TrEMBL record, chain A:
Residues 69-146, 414-490 form the YdbS-like PH domain. The keyword Protease does not apply. This is PH domain-containing protein. Keywords: Membrane, Transmembrane, Transmembrane helix. The lineage of its organism: Bacteria, Bacillati, Actinomycetota, Actinomycetes, Propionibacteriales. The keyword Electron transport does not apply. The chain crosses the membrane at residues 49-70, 192-211, 231-262, 371-388, 394-414. It comes from Nocardioides astragali.
Automatic annotation (TrEMBL), chain B:
It comes from Nocardioides astragali. The chain crosses the membrane at residues 21-47, 53-71. InterPro entries: YdbS-like_PH. This is PH domain-containing protein. It holds the Pfam family bPH_2. Residues 78-153 form the YdbS-like PH domain. Keywords: Membrane, Transmembrane, Transmembrane helix.
Amino acid sequence: MIPSPGSPGEGWSRLSPRKLLLDPVKAVGQAVVPVVVALVGISQSDMKYWPLIFPLAVLAPLLLGALPWLTTHYRLSDTQIQVRSGVLNKTTSTAPLDRVRSVDLEASLLHRILGLQKVQVGTGVDDDRITLDALAAADAQALRTTLLRRRAAVEQPVEVADGAEPAAAPPPASPEPAPAVLARIDWSWLRFAPFSLARLVLLAGAVGLLSQVGDNLPIWNEETATSAWEWIAGFALAAVVVVLTVGGLAAWVALSVAGYVVQWWNFLLVREHGSLHLTTGLFTTRSITVEEARVRGVELTEPVLLRIVGGAELSTLATGVENGVTQVLPPCPRGVATSVGEVVLEQPEALTQDLVAHGPKARRRAWFRQLFSAVDVIVVAAAAAWWFDVSWVWVAALAVVLLVVAAAVGEASYRHLGHALAGDHLVAGRGALARIRTVLETDGIIGWVVTQSWWQRRIGLADLTATTAAGAESVLVRDVRLDVAVALADRATPGLLTDFLRSDAEPA
Amino acid sequence: MSDVGGTPVLREPAHQVSPRAVPFWTVSALIGDALLVIGVLVACLLVPGVPGWAWLVVVLVGVLAIAHVVLMPRIRFRVHRWEVTDTAVHTREGWIGRESRIAPISRVQTVDSRQGALMRMFGLASITVTTASAAGPITVDCLDAETARQVVARLTAITAATEDDAT
């Protein structure tokens, strides 16, 4: 229901009426766990509240779910998009169309069954996003195209100075080159799924939840536990361990592969209307659009396991997007990640060139940083061992293992450290276990911070931070020689530091 | 610029903060540290059967607090410097470590000045210049209130003249 540009006066539209089905179902779904828990709790104590609570538990979500549809309206005029919502406190969000930076569509399984999509419009500097949940899928698509195209139309005459695209040749009459596919899913990438541990966190959470519930289950008491243990001990313990390990690994592989498929089904990354456009998802489909002029850099992450098998992940760093860091590639071969990254950056070699190392003093600090934390743990362990009267052999063994690991991690974190200036991009390498390379357009640098701790001052090192509005809002070059840091900052943003430089050897 | 003879060094910004910053920092450190010392002392007095070394800790805290109150404001006054040119804001601060911050004025988004009750008694004000980056706010602590007003006026005039959205 997009109002035509000719009717800017009234033209308020409602969300899709199918939202009336969506929200109550969602509300019931969200309420079901606490309600069931509450009901179980109550049923164990007293039955007399049942008639009171049951209708409340069912009706309240239904009513609450219907409210947003009744109160939310939106309209699109020639120059802006407005959304009005709220029951008692009416709020109206207005975004000028030339401020629209990103348009994301998302559809959960429920949305998809009902043929709906959630639209989120990101606008410029502040992090507030205009959300329309939900529109009919066709309307949502149309709205997205309209918003992005209008933005292009509004911006084209102004955007000449920006020089993001040499738009001299094609006049605004043909602003739409064919979408260029940057990457699409390749199912051989599935081999990286088990090596990407991000999903393990979710799994751990689920196990934690299960164990909480499990505590209340009648089967889990001391008696059964003891008998189960005796039953297990009847077998060879080694066999049990092997079975558990193999079973755990198999479960992990199955789960991670399934997760990968669900998340990255139909993954497609294209460049169109001067934006990067990513679509993906098996059940919940996401469609994310980021204006390329807003993309200030990329981050290439190689978590330790993924790196062993030659995989990497890629994120863009953008301004005006909700959290600034958008993962644009699934775990995939490093070569794919670097080439896509360099296409996005329009800066060849930024992700592959060698970095300038930070020298032996930085290595020493990298080692010490890890060794100190290992020593902390060892001291705590020693204190615990003394308190609980555990054999010192264990403490010694732990100490040796920790120190070796710390040394290895320290060396790794030094090797990951580095910086470079690739064309008009600042490149910073960091990371202890994962190797992370951040590339930031120097035009996106909006300030510098040079910090020196007392220790760093004694050995002439400094942490150089480039501040930016994109991504995590800062890029850190750690433990670099002070003069190198100043020279790097000076080269990256010519002119900014000139007034504050002194070319002599007198220590500051 | 990096290869024009010798290594480039970031020179210190031109101006010092107000000399009244020293008594201000002394008083505010004194208040904070006194509360801490009294808190530790009271804890030692109230808890029955404190071991002897606890008093050693109290003494240690007291000595550190005195050193902090006496030394910190003076070192800080020597280190804290600031400068606003037509193109950039540059500050240096810290007393154990050092932190230099530089931001181009064309990217400045807001200019705030702040004056707490205690600062007002000393006729001081702080200025905070923010950019679009959460990592980038630049604070000049403890300027003379009149100077602060002038700097804010000047910065506001310059930033109003630039027309970027500063990201």
